[in-house]
Structure formats: structure tokens, C-alpha cells
Amino acid sequence: MDGLSDALDALAAEDLAPLVGPALLERLRPLLLALNRLAAEIARTVAECEVSGAAGHDGLTTMASWLRGHGHLSGAEAARVVRAGRALGHLPAMAAAFAAGEVTGEQAAVLGTVADPAKLALAAGQGVDLRVVDGLLTGVARRHPQADTARAVRHYADRLDADGPEPDPTEGRRLSITRHADGSVSFRGDLDAVGGEEVATAVEAVVQAGRAAADGRTRTQQQADALAQLADNALAGGGLPVLRTVKPHVVVTVDVEDLADPATGAGAAELASGAVVSAARARWLACDGAVTRIVMGPAGLPLDVGRTQRVVPPHLRRAVERRDRHCVFAGCGAPAWWCDVHHVLEWANGGDTSVENSALLCERHHTKVHHGFRVERGTDGRWRTWRPDGTRIRTGPGNTGPPLTSAA
């Protein structure tokens, strides 16, 4: 690992400015090969981590959740790495090509679906020689781009289960919602034929209802507006499931001065996700929304109910959600609506029901902190987590230093 780090340092120190196009491309090719080889080592290591239950050392259940929280991978990328690692033992040709850098991590994950337990059982029942399939599909991946690899794997899967029962349409549904630094959101997903038809029909109904003679929006803009309107209607209708005793709603936080000031107030308000919007936008939302006053101090809405009440009241939960936003256990990040409000110093041991003594924890990690793990909020406002042995859990690929031990 030290040699690898030294080699990367040497590469990073090279001046690329004097290089022209062909020379840059020649430099890029071996880097891509090295990237694939590193991806193969990551997948191999993750597979061994799964076998040994390594994620449990940091209070997590799966390596996918560990990769999201500690490796800062997206959910989709974490799932791809895990899938590729699990397939290595079943697909030796793919494993060899992956280790040699001849296929990408994304291709390896697609090939890895061949080794899903259900497909392995079907192949065994039909006498399919998996070694032949492995060799053929790996050959496609070596010579062709990602899309062709996926097409070949899908063709194999269709042939494997050509006469099987009608598949569950929900198995192929995927939706990824990505938040960007400016608060905007991108969607990427897949739906089966019926689910896709339902969504498209609902969106089209709103598009057609809002058509106007001088509408200058593009088709894609009309559909995006319609999707947002569908969500707005569902939230306003009050029929969505209640989350942790609270109806789902859009939360925007703004100072009372900015709320009263008619100025635009760019960047003066904040959504629950952390996205920043203008005070004008907050006032627009407040037109048909409920306004809750939260005063972080001794006056106004009480944020501390002392020892007389163990259960956290709704107004205090809103304040804790506003501060923590998600599960505070290191590497987790489960959304607020999955979480309980935990007494850092347990109520039974004299802890107050207050914002200062509260932390958002998902069900799994709420259980963990009652079985040896510990969370604490530092003077800088950041949460830190310790294992039962007193070592601190640190997240992020760059955190390679020795573990920290909590103070007595």
C-alpha cells in the first residue's frame, strides 16, 4: 500500500501542461487499466469483508451500508461493488479479466448478476455449464462497451428463464434521487411496463390540464413541472403515510426578520435537506403552510421539557430533526423519518428530555447505543461515535490514522 501511495504521489506531481493530445491519451490508457485493477482489488476485499462480517466492527450490518457511510459511495455504486465481489468465486474468467484490468468495475457488476443465487439455481437445473457462459460473457466485456455487455447478460437471463413464471414487475424497478451541492435534484430510474405507463399517464394528465396557448416551456419542462405538481398534490392531500407520528411535509427554516422583509433575501432560508433557497421562496411556501416558531433559547417555544416527560413531544422532535437531519451514528445517514429521538444520557439515569440531550438514531443504531456503542456531540456541534472497546469510528477514505480512544 505504501508503494501504491508513492506511485500515485509521483503521478500527481507530473506536469501535464507540456503534453499534447496523443501524449495525454497514451498517459490515460494505463491509468484506466490501473483503475480497473484497483476496482478488482476493492471488490475482492469487500467479498472477504462480507465473509468475515467486518461491517459489524463499525456497527453496520452490510458492506453496502459501510461503503456508503465510510467510503462515501452512492447506493448504486456500493451495490455494484458488492455484487462484483460476490461473483468473483463463481465466475473465474471474469475474475481473471477484472484483476488484469481488462473489464471495468461496472462491467464486472453486470456480469455478476449471472451469479445471483436464483440464476445459479436455474442454470444448475438446466445443466448449463457456467464456465462456458462465464467465458463467453467475459469475452464480450473484453471487446465491447458497457451497453453491449449489459445486452449480452440480459439475453442470457431471458434465455435461462424463457418458460418460467411471470416475473415480479417490482424486481426491476429502480429510482435514484441525487441531491447536488446547490440543492437541485436529479432522478434516474427504471420501471416495468405497467408501472411506467401509470407514471407517464399521471404526468401527462397534469401536463394536459396545464396547457396554455402561450406556453413557452419545452416538453421536458412541462413534464418536470407536472411531476412536482403531483408530489405537491399528494402532500397537500394528507393521504400519505405518517412518518414517526408526523405527516410528511416540506420543512423550510427562515429567520423571522427575513420572513417579514419583502426583499428577495437570496440564500436566507434552508430546506430540511440542507438546500438553500431565498426568503421570497420561503414566504411563498408559507402562504399555504403552517408556521412553527422555534426559539433556540429560554424564551418562546420550549425546547426543554425537563424530567417530567420522557417521550419527546412533536415540537422538540422538529427541532432535533432541524439540527441533526439524519441518523448521527458514524457512517449511517439514514433519513430523519427512519429515526428515533434518543436520550444521550438515558432518561432512566437522570437525562432530560431536551434538544441538547437528544440525538436522531435509526432503529438499528438506537439498539447499538444501548448495547455498548456510544454517540456524543462535541463542542463544535459534530457527532462522534465510539465502539464498545472505546475506539472511535472514523469515516471517509482518507481516515487511515490510528483509531482514537474516547476520554474517560
Report on this model:
- GO terms for molecular function: endonuclease activity; nucleic acid binding; zinc ion binding.
- Belongs to the Rv1128c/1148c/1588c/1702c/1945/3466 family.
- This is HNH nuclease domain-containing protein.
- With 408 residues, this protein is mainly alpha-helical.
- Helix content is 45%, strand content 10%.
- It has 15 helices and ten strands.
- Strand 4 and strand 5 form a beta hairpin.
Topology of this structure?
Elements: H1 2-13, H2 21-52, H3 63-69, H4 75-87, H5 92-99, H6 105-112, H7 117-125, H8 130-143, H9 146-160, E1 174-179, E2 185-190, H10 193-209, H11 219-237, E3 252-254, H12 256-260, E4 269-271, E5 276-277, H13 279-286, H14 314-324, E6 339-343, E7 358-362, H15 363-369, E8 374-377, E9 383-386, E10 392-393
Antiparallel strand pairs: 1-2, 3-4, 4-5, 6-7, 8-9, 9-10
Q: Structural class, please?
A: mainly alpha
Q: Biggest sheet, in brief? A: 3 strands, antiparallel
Strand content range: 5-15%
Separate helix tally: 15
Q: Please bin the fraction of helical residues.
A: 40-55%
Contiguous uncertain segments of 5+ residues: 298-302, 401-408
Average of pLDDT:
82
Biggest sheet strand line-up: 3-4-5
User: Over the alpha carbons, how many angstroms does the gyration radius reach?
Assistant: 26 Å
Shape: globular
As for the number of domains, it is 4
- Could you state the order of secondary-structure elements as H and E? HHHHHHHHHEEHHEHEEHHEEHEEE
Whole-Å distance between the termini? 34 Å
How many strands in all? 10
Domain HNH nuclease: 315-367
Region (Disordered): 384-408
Organism: Geodermatophilus pulveris
GO molecular function: endonuclease activity; nucleic acid binding; zinc ion binding
